[in-house]
Design brief:
Radius of gyration: 18 Å
Order of helices and strands: EHHEEHEHEEEHEEEEEHE
Low-confidence stretches: 237-246
Strand content: 25-35%
Shape: globular
Largest sheet: 5 strands, antiparallel
Mean pLDDT: 86
Number of helices: 6
Structural class: alpha+beta
């Protein structure tokens, strides 16, 4: 597995087009893969995942996790940012992190996900997937999903005034509805709720955690959701869940 970081230039027309249309971004990423992924890969199998972090809107970062080392030359020619001494994109092996996971390790993390739930269709035995739209439900979705993904969200020493338990070390970095047309101008319009999470976690089940890291969390993974990345935990987060009740 390889983790790739690429800097985009939001002033370039190619970058604007890709950022506005997750399907176009996904297609551009796949064109940089040595081998095209199998569409019907087995559940839990490693897959191509990507996420766009726009902390600096002047130089958003595209993160990409893939089973093979990509070649993003073509993508960066139309959407990349000038290097200024820093490579416009670079890949690193992800295997050392995956093999080194063990229970009890703690990390800072980031994740962009599509929090959903299944609801029963009236007068039918089928169910359909609907997206969570409130911050409270979006937070709850990740907390509940964490257990099956092999980790737990840490709590802090801060006590919120309206709650009897410690606050989670978790915040919502972003909440957005992305609308785009699938298959071109005449294609069907798609709306995806994307939520950016940031916080601190502890590994509980290393095998489940490895699967979550390499296959993604939740749905809409082709549209920039599902990629969980880890970093060293230098200190504790503020412990306040932003946007509660919004």
């Amino acid at each position: 597995m390889y983790l790739t970081r690429a800097f985009l230039d939001p002033l370039r027309g190619g970058a604007l087009r890709l950022v506005a249309n997750p399907q176009a971004m996904h297609a551009a990423i796949l064109r940089g893969m040595p081998t095209q992924p199998v569409p019907a890969a087995a559940p839990g199998a490693p897959r191509v995942l990507w996420r766009l972090d726009a902390d600096d809107p002047r130089r958003p970062i595209l993160w990409l996790l893939s089973p093979e080392k990509p070649d993003l030359t073509a993508l960066m020619q139309v959407a990349g940012a000038p290097g200024n001494g820093v490579p416009s994109w670079e890949s690193r092996e992800y295997t050392p992190l995956l093999t080194g996971l063990s229970a009890g390790q703690r990390f800072a993390f980031r994740l962009t996900a599509n929090p959903t739930r299944s609801v029963r269709v009236p007068h039918a035995s089928d169910t359909r997937r609907v997206e969570h739209v409130t911050a409270e439900h979006q937070v709850r979705w990740l907390v509940e999903r964490a257990e099956r993904c092999g980790f737990r969200i840490l709590t802090s020493d801060v006590m919120l005034p309206d709650r009897a338990e410690p606050a989670l070390e978790l915040r919502l970095r972003s909440r957005e509805k992305v609308r785009f047309r699938r298959g071109g101008v005449q294609g069907r319009q798609v709306t995806v709720v994307r939520v950016g999470y940031e916080g601190a976690l502890e590994v509980v089940d290393p095998d489940a955690m490895r699967s979550a890291l390499t296959s993604g969390i939740g749905h809409a993974r082709a549209y920039g959701c599902g990629l969980l990345t880890l970093a060293r935990l230098p200190g504790r987060c503020n412990g306040v869940v932003e946007g509660r009740g919004a």
